[in-house]
Amino acid sequence: MSEQAPLLSLNSLSREIKKRKILDNISFDFLAGKTYTIIGPSGAGKSSLLRLINRLDEPTDGTVLLNGKPAREYKPEHLRCQIGFLFQTPHLFEKTISDNLLFANRSLSIDEQKHLLEIVQINASRLHEPVPKLSVGEKQRVALARLLATKPLVALLDEPTSALDPSITEAIEQTIKEIINLTNLTVIMVTHNPDQALRMGGESLLLVDGKLIETGHVEHVINNPSTQLGRQYRSRDLL
Amino acid sequence: MSYSVLSTPLLSILATTTSDKMVSPNLTQVGYSALLVLISIAISRFWKLPVAKDMAIGSVRTFAQLVAVGYALKIIFDIDSAWLIALVLIIMTLVGAHAASGSVREIRKSFPILFLAMSIGSLITIGLMSLLVIPFQASYIIPLGGMIISNSMNAAALSLTRLGADLSQQKLAVESALALGKTWQVATRSIVRESARTGMISILNFMKTVGIVALPGAMTGMILAGAEPLDAVYLQIIVAYMLLMAVTLTSIIAVAIAIRRFFTSYHQLIETDN
Ligand SMILES: Nc1ncnc2c1ncn2[C@@H]1O[C@H](COP(=O)(O)OP(=O)(O)O)[C@@H](O)[C@H]1O
Ligand SMILES: [Mg+2]
Fold first, then answer.
1. Strands A211-217 vs A61-66: parallel, antiparallel or unpaired
2. What is the ipTM of this complex?
3. Which of A77, A94, B98, B133 lies 20 to 30 Å from A141, alpha-carbon distance?
């Protein structure tokens, strides 16, 4: 394996809320173009970790480096355009699909907007459809397209299918994989479902109670964990 | 929301006309009018409405508070010093800001914001008024100032309440915009506009229906005091325009100051745990 400089590094990240450590000393390097899943029981701190990476929250301790430069040294607008964030329940503005894409990036041409829709597998002819008319799954696709509109290097996806009907979960997973293929995006996806992590492939981080318990290839983290907590998670004791 | 201030009896002071129509009631007449209170209490008793005590206390308070204000105003008007006017206006603003901060539960420690916004909004309005139309005399500035300040107070309280409520209800929308690389100014644009507008709704409604639904207090006071109806109308128009400006300034300033509390310098929405 060649030594590749990490795209994104977390150095001893901690976050305390009211004297309680919801994230405790997290360190990890993310490499460009790879796929990562963050797994762990509910309340483990998965969403909180994504918020620190996108800097919607301030870490109590530690640093995030993007391309070797501390996140704090980027302008917030610039940092967040490079590190896109899809919330667990995404919020679209109640206008057209096109308005939502243009809100993220005013300079997108019509062709670029249509191209984004193709990537998320929505027919480009629907660009001017009003958002409230879309199905939940379609809204999620538009939210993904809007995230791509700022041309990010990293996409943070917080349980992108948890609000969806199981029947469309795999279709959205396919779309995310398609995005990865087409754009060479680094994806960090949170899921509370180990099977989904296995389907996504790549590397996995197991968080339990704010601590990073296991890291490595997803198969290894889920099926062959090296720690007691990892084995407990595998046997579903922690779910 | 009622425009109680518009019906303040202070306004009749503005009527300086001394025509023979002028009503100037004395204590005996006030005594007779107390009969109306007794009738109200009797009716409530008969219907077993649990309000008799409140009515009695309320009527005594009305008498005591207004007589006290009457004597205070008489003294202030007689002295008629700029310092005293300023002092009275400041006290009114302090009391108003304090009362309003109690009603704004959505934003903690809102007193300084309210006080600053009300001071700036009222000061500019009163300043312009006394430069352009109203003589800088206690008998004009204090009643008008009272109206301006209490309307500013209501406007600022409503605006801040709306702002706090919207920011917590629309947290997801705001953070979605932040996460897309927008500044907090952009992310909160529509919330800020709506909140500022909320403070202006009552004066806008008032101006739409004034004279049609009810005769406003300033006008009523002047007419009762014997002024020509048209004079009363002109004064009322001035009062309405004045309140419009005060309310506009105060709402916008209150929202503009308060919103900063919700964001860090790195454009992060601060968790507000009320
Ligand atoms: N704003 C907050 N205030 C207080 N506690 C919080 C806040 N955000 C998260 N937490 C707590 O931090 C822990 C981790 O939450 P979260 O990151 O949402 O977990 P996950 O996404 O893994 O389910 C939980 O115990 C949660 O209650
Ligand atoms: Mg979560």
1. unpaired
2. 0.94
3. A77
* Among the partner residues A55, A58, A90, nearest to B176 by beta-carbon distance: A90
Q: What is the pLDDT along chain A (239 residues), one digit of tens a residue?
A: 557 899 999 999 999 999 999 999 999 999 999 999 999 999 999 999 999 999 999 999 999 999 999 999 999 999 999 999 999 988 998 899 999 999 999 999 999 999 999 999 999 999 999 999 999 999 999 999 999 999 999 999 999 999 888 889 999 999 999 999 988 899 999 998 999 999 999 999 999 999 999 999 999 999 998 898 888 888 876 65
- With an 8 Å Cβ cutoff, the interface of chain A facing chain B consists of 54-58, 72, 76-81, 84-85, 87, 89-91, 93, 103-104, 146-147, 149-150
Q: State the pTM of this model.
A: 0.87
> What distance lies between CA B259 and its chain's CA centroid?
22
- Strand (E) positions, chain A? 8-17, 20-30, 35-39, 61-66, 69-70, 83-86, 154-158, 186-190, 203-208, 211-217
Under 8 Å between Cβ of A59 and A13: yes
